[in-house]
Specification:
Layout: H1 3-39, H2 46-81, H3 88-91, H4 109-130, H5 150-153, E1 162-164, E2 171-176, H6 187-195, E3 198-203, H7 220-237, E4 244-249, H8 251-265, E5 274-278, H9 294-301, E6 308-310, E7 323-324, H10 325-347, E8 357-362, H11 370-378, E9 387-391, H12 408-417, E10 423-429, E11 437-443, E12 446-452, H13 505-508, H14 516-534, H15 542-545
Parallel strand pairs: 2-3, 2-4, 4-5, 5-8, 8-9, 9-10
Antiparallel strand pairs: 1-3, 6-7, 10-11, 11-12
Helix pairs in contact: 1-2, 7-8, 8-10, 11-12
């Protein structure tokens, strides 16, 4: 431990003991005064003793808060000191990154792409000129020509924004990735949408695709400003008579809903005809709010490690492995802003004006709150075209003793007791043949069950937050059939978790969606149904006009 940090740690411990001793003395005085009050006869001293007790209570409360704060600060500092050493990508990021202040009224998507080009030029200089001693090992996304180098995985570096236009589009779709993620997570869906006739834009959200350090400085206002610019850019590339849509994964889902609600408040923002959500981040653990303190702790301690929740080796070419506290803080602020807008819209009696929404979500999700998705969003939507599509767990009898069913306490009562105004669909094991699958759909009490040919692959108990948008044949996160080069979906290492610089969840968490094809078709069909309501009327011939 550096001597300066050791000195600060000793000072903190001394401060904690001093406050503890003072609080003990104050507590003893408080007990003494209480005993004196109990034995005192009503006289002129009664009011004085009561005032002294109240004063001692206030002092004791303040001291208790000081103790709690000092202890939390001390343990935060101690835990951060136990993290691995920080590398260049934890301490530096491109200075040209977009922020909300850049978004002037004349700023366009083309300007954003130009600025993004400068960002990646700066990143290249950091990698080649500044981090030479940090490039140990072949599994490093910041080592050129390594197995994890983003530029070598596919022909296009999917950490960057991308636009695919159609000459005669049927509509436009903006794809928004998740937190610590990149446009790669929605690569497959966007390519399918483009093949079906949509002009597609993959937006690299500010702070992503470069270095984990970028997320320590970014704000959710920067994200929303970038989304507004991207939607305007999409609208300019699609004829005004055609609809545009949003599709967001995880935090991109929250950003999609936020933009949709903002467009209802601000007529200068282009409206969208529908929103597709994949594992949307509309409810997270309230403890994320506490991570706002990381800036204060880091400023006082002058220890950069206090800004980080965990530090891992950066082996994923398209997703940060290390996680800064600020990411949680901004995600919390993002979800709270969305919920506030939903409440305001409902109180204004305009909730029925919201465009249709489709969410594809696993019933178990350790990243977001599924019950909050149901109550905060789908419990409010009024359109019958809106749909909540849930992927149930694998309920084969032979797996029953391996499954933790506690998640049902938060989800099933909500689904069973509330008559959602929108469509509810669940992909699940069939009751008559558990190894086979069905989709059960409920709308206004009417239930329809449709058998599907899909089955759970061996070893799968459930999907996960990160698996939803990923196809089984994905070259990075796919199954064992894609292990020719880098495949994080089938990585296998045997060791004590503490011996590795990668999380143990990398081996146990599902990385791809075995029902991806079904999901992709469902999204395309849903968008197609919305196209019907926005299809321009056929041109009337001269004779008909006459």
């Amino acid at each position: 431990m550096p001597s300066s940090l050791k000195q600060r740690s000793l000072l903190l411990r001394a401060l904690i003991w001093l406050v503890l001793v003072t609080a003990g003395i104050t507590l003893g005085a408080l007990v003494f005064e209480a005993l004196q009050l109990a034995s005192t006869q009503p006289d002129m001293l009664m009011s004085e003793r009561v005032l002294r007790i109240i004063t001692l209570l206030v002092v004791n409360l303040v001291l208790t808060m000081l103790i709690a704060t000092a202890c939390a600060f001390y343990f935060w500092l101690r835990i951060s000191q136990s993290l691995p050493d920080l590398k260049g990508w934890h301490l530096q990021s491109p200075a040209s990154e977009f922020n909300a202040k850049d978004a002037s009224s004349e700023y366009t998507l083309d300007d954003y792409l130009t600025q993004e080009r400068r960002v990646f030029e700066e990143l290249e200089r950091l990698i080649t000129n500044h981090w030479g001693t940090d490039h140990a090992g072949d599994y490093n996304r910041f080592k050129r020509d390594s197995i994890c180098d983003p530029a070598s995985v596919l022909d296009h570096n999917w950490n960057r924004s991308r636009i695919l236009e159609c000459q005669n589009p049927i509509g436009g779709v903006l794809l928004i990735h998740g937190l610590s993620d990149s446009p790669y997570s929605l690569r497959k869906l966007g390519e399918r949408l483009h093949s079906e006739g949509y002009t597609v834009i993959w937006l690299r959200v500010p702070g992503h695709g470069t270095t984990p350090h970028a997320l320590t400085e970014i704000s959710w206002d920067d994200w929303t400003a970038a989304v507004r610019i991207a939607v305007k850019g999409l609208r300019s590339r699609v004829p005004a008579s055609l609809p545009i849509f949003l599709a967001g994964y995880s935090n991109g889902g929250a950003l999609s809903v936020h933009y949709t609600l903002s467009a209802m408040e601000d007529e200068s923002l282009p409206p969208v005809a529908g929103v597709a959500l994949l594992s949307p981040m509309l409810g997270i653990n309230p403890m994320a709010k506490m991570t706002h303190l990381s800036h204060f702790v880091g400023m006082i301690s002058r220890n950069e490690k206090t800004k980080w929740s965990h530090i891992y080796a950066e082996i994923d070419p398209f997703k940060y492995s290390s996680w800064p506290m600020n990411a949680n803080a901004q995600a919390w602020s993002m979800t709270q802003a969305v919920e506030k807008k939903l409440v305001n819209l409902q109180q204004a009696g305009r909730i029925h004006e919201m465009p249709p929404m489709l969410a594809m979500q696993s019933v178990v999700d350790s990243t977001v709150s599924v019950p909050r998705l149901i109550t905060a969003l789908f419990g409010r939507l009024q359109s019958e075209k809106s749909e909540l599509f849930l992927f149930d767990i694998n309920r084969l009898d032979k797996l029953s003793n391996l499954v933790n069913f506690s998640f049902e306490k938060g989800i099933m009562p909500t689904l069973e007791q509330s008559d959602l105004p929108c469509r509810l669909s669940i992909l699940h094991n069939r009751h008559d043949a558990a190894e086979k699958m069905s989709i059960t759909t409920r709308l206004h009490g009417q239930i329809d069950e449709k058998h599907v040919p899909n089955i759970w692959p061996p070893g799968f108990v459930s999907l996960s937050h990160v698996a939803i948008p990923i196809a089984p044949d994905d070259p990075v996160y796919g199954d064992r059939s894609n292990c020719e080069r880098l495949s994080l979906g089938c990585i296998s290492v045997r060791a004590e978790p503490s011996a590795l610089m990668i999380p143990s969840t990398l081996f146990t968490r599902s990385r791809h969606n075995p029902f991806y094809g079904l999901m992709e078709d469902h999204i395309l069909n849903w968008l197609g149904s919305l196209q019907e309501t926005h299809r321009p009327p056929p041109e009337v011939s001269h004779r008909e006009r006459a």
